[in-house]
Amino acid sequence: MLDAAVKDGRLARNVAAGVDLPRLPTTDRRYLTHGQLADLADHCGPHRLLVLVLGYTGLRWGEAAALRVRRVDLLRGRIEVAESVTEVEGRSVFGPPKSHARRWVPVPRFLRDDLVDHLAGRDPEEFVFPSRAGGPLRVGNFRRDRFDRAAVAVGMAGLVPHELRHTAASLAIASGASIKGVQSMLGHASAAMTLDRYGHLFGDELDAVAERMDAARAEWMRTEGSSGSASRSAD
Questions:
Q1: Do 112 and 74 form a contact (C-beta atoms < 8 A)?
Q2: Does the global pTM surpass 0.85?
Q3: Which among 25, 61, 58, 35 has a CA at the least distance from the CA of 156?
């Protein structure tokens, strides 16, 4: 805001430039397992498929709420994320995704089968997950009607829908997805952002790197290393 005021000539300089901001408090993230996610979805009743889509594609709430039928390509197994919706003073305001860039998100085959039934006969401009009135589903209504009670029922009181995005990232990483793959799925501006948020989940991959280095050194010792030792002994 202050930068905009400087550009507009209302201020001579941005007095906040260079000021160190206080560190935001860190909170422990919860990552659901496949079983926990399935249990949560089942307890959400008519919103079961929405919960699974959030937990396996990493869509932000606004992206899922704004998703239209024509954006789901069931043949390719992709969802096009081109729009998001935000609540502003009780109104639904549509705009581009957070990154301001469209992206394609992969859809696991088991979800495609459910989506085929869910979208059968629907108009291309309809919302995939509409409210009872046909408009975009509001997160407050979703939580009050189903999600919060479902979270308590499965032993995860306080869980919020955005944690399903974290879950999608963790499940993708556990399945072997690369940093770039997760970045693309989540729509992060850079791989560095993905690493900053989820790098700790790549622990098994780092273990594998160490094991490969171990194996490579063992092979070197078996060939060149052993011959080098023999040469030194002869000297």
A1: yes
A2: no
A3: 35
| Cβ-proximal residues to 42 (8 Å cutoff; 6+ apart), any chain | 48
pLDDT tens digit at each of 235 positions of the chain: 666 666 677 777 777 776 665 554 445 789 999 999 999 999 999 999 999 999 999 999 999 999 999 999 999 999 999 999 998 888 999 999 986 788 999 999 999 999 999 999 999 999 999 999 999 999 999 999 999 999 999 999 999 999 999 999 999 998 989 889 999 999 998 889 888 888 888 766 667 778 888 999 898 888 876 565 555 555 5
With contact defined as beta carbons under 8 Å apart, do 145 and 87 qualify? no
Cα 185 to Cα 145: distance, rounded to the nearest angstrom: 29
* Rounded-to-integer distance, Cα 224 and Cα 217, Å: 10
Kindly tell me the burial class for residue 203, based on how many C-beta atoms sit within 10 Å of its own C-beta (0-12, 13-18, 19 or more): exposed
* Residue 158 · residue 29 · CB < 8 Å: no
Q: Are strands 91-95 and 103-106 parallel, antiparallel or unpaired?
A: unpaired
